[in-house]
Amino acid sequence: MSSSIYIIFSLSLFSLFIHPTFSQTTCKSLKLSSNVTFENCNDLPTLDAILHWTYNPSKSSLSVAFTASPPQPDGWVGWGLNPTAPGMKGAQVLVAHKGKDSVTVDTYDLRDYHDIKKGPISYNVSSLSAEETSGKITVFGTWVIPKGESTVNSVWQVGPMMKGDIAKHAMEPANRNAMLKLSLTGAGAPGGSPAGSPSGSSTDGSAPPPGTGAGERLVSGVLALGAIVVSMVV
Is the peptide bond before 173 cis (omega within 30 degrees of 0)? Predict the structure, then answer.
């Protein structure tokens, strides 16, 4: 009996270390190959995405490095700002994908879901670049934010490519909830809150702390199982 319990516990412990939510990259573990450093970093609440960023109030500029894994090797990742409202419609986005020889970055104005084309956006953006490491793509860029704004509506997404252009992303909950109201200054930075939270939902105005989520719940579950096993053996 005790040997069977030991085997079950061993398998559970093994699953802990191979489970993707336990081993996923976080702000603390991600190493950018670029020499650029950032003041803040958020583990975004969906799509296992990460945002490094620095806001310079004197220049009203927001420098970012957005990291995510495309759903397929030649897929795309994107991050942007919506100047009018939370959500994707109307967002101004940087999109990167890996080509044959390099990772390219383009700008997209998402005014119309049915006619998504790359082209100029309403924000002044500079220092655009991208890199790919171990299947993850990081997009770099500096945005000029209208003076006086202390929060911005950020959005992000991942999706496939089709015939050399971006194709529609999935519509799973993780995709639909890929938005965050980012606080740039004051006590809230480096915080944020989910943009477009349903009325009546509670939020403290801060982004999910790094390292919280499914991985920690998995650890707690395995430790609880271990305690049960020990009590049964003893």
Answer: no
User: 């603390």: which residue's tokens?
Assistant: 28
- For residues 53 and 140, give the distance between their C-alpha atoms in angstroms, rounded to a whole number: 10
Q: Give the containing element (helix H, strand E) for 133.
A: strand 125-133
CATH number of the domain that residue 154 is part of: 2.60.40.1210
Q: With contact defined as beta carbons under 8 Å apart, do 26 and 211 qualify?
A: yes
* Cα–Cα distances in angstroms (integers) from residue 184 to residues 38, 48, 57, in the given order: 13, 22, 9
- Report helix, strand or coil for 22: helix
Task: Examine residue 16 and state whether it is found in any structural domain, yes or no.
Answer: no
pLDDT in tens, 14-34: 443 444 444 467 888 888 877
CB atoms within 10 A of CB 155: 22
Determine the pLDDT at residue 194. Answer: 45
- Residue span of the structural domain in which 62 resides: 33-197
Mean pLDDT value of segment 213-226: 41
Q: What percent of the chain has pLDDT over 90?
A: 50
Q: What is the pLDDT of residue 167?
A: 81
Per-residue pLDDT at 122 exceeds 70: yes
Residue 47 lies in a domain: yes
Q: How confident is the model at residue 165 (pLDDT cuts 50, 70, 90)?
A: confident
Q: How many domains does the chain have?
A: 1
Question: How far is it, in rounded angstroms, from Cα 15 to Cα 156?
Answer: 30
